[in-house]
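Sequence in, structure out.
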Amino acid sequence: AVTFAAGLAKEGLKPFVAIYSTFLQRAFDQIFHDVALPNLPVRFIIDKAGLPGQDGKTHAGIYEMDLLKNFEKFFILSPSTTVEMQNMLEFASNHNSSPLAIRFPKIASSVVLGDFKFDGAFREIAQGENIAIFFCSAILTNILEAISISKTNPTILDVRIVQPFDFDNFAKISENYNKIIVIEEGVFGGLSGIICEKLFASNNLNLRAKIEFLTLSKAPVTHCSREDQLSMSPLSANSIADLLKRCT
């Protein structure tokens, strides 16, 4: 399917490859050789990104962002609401300069503070002080619960364009806070890896000293509900709350 889509793109058509995150891993070679190397505008619509719940260990969508980020020109988008998803699909249909992926979770879309359109790399969900949380994927509910538990007041920013990552804006925003927390519903290396690469390249020692990453373990995901998977992970509300307390 991926190679076929590459052929369609090469002939000027607009192919969309709709596929589970876990199955996309099996096409890594095709993505590299047939899509990324010739830089063809194949649009990957990646379902079940993040923890899979009852779908089991084999359906854990926690690796594909770490794989795709290795291709420099590959756009990676992460919607958090239905309207954002719709606008990203429209953006994808008009994006012809490189491959693109839109990754979205299995769970239903949630709406927080209005269903904002896709109009920038970061969406500010809440304005706080001292701590800024940058998150990606469907982990917002746990973050809000953690804030309630910890009785803290951080700024919350949704990272909608994972790659190309707007590091300059990220660094500028971070200047206003004592601590930066990056939360990713995936293994270390996706959003976290992108930020680390740019962080060390920038030699921004001040930002290095105040940033922390919360990601999933590399251990196989236990077959249980998504809620239980989160509760057993570093991304549980209690784990995030403990980090917020330490950072206050």
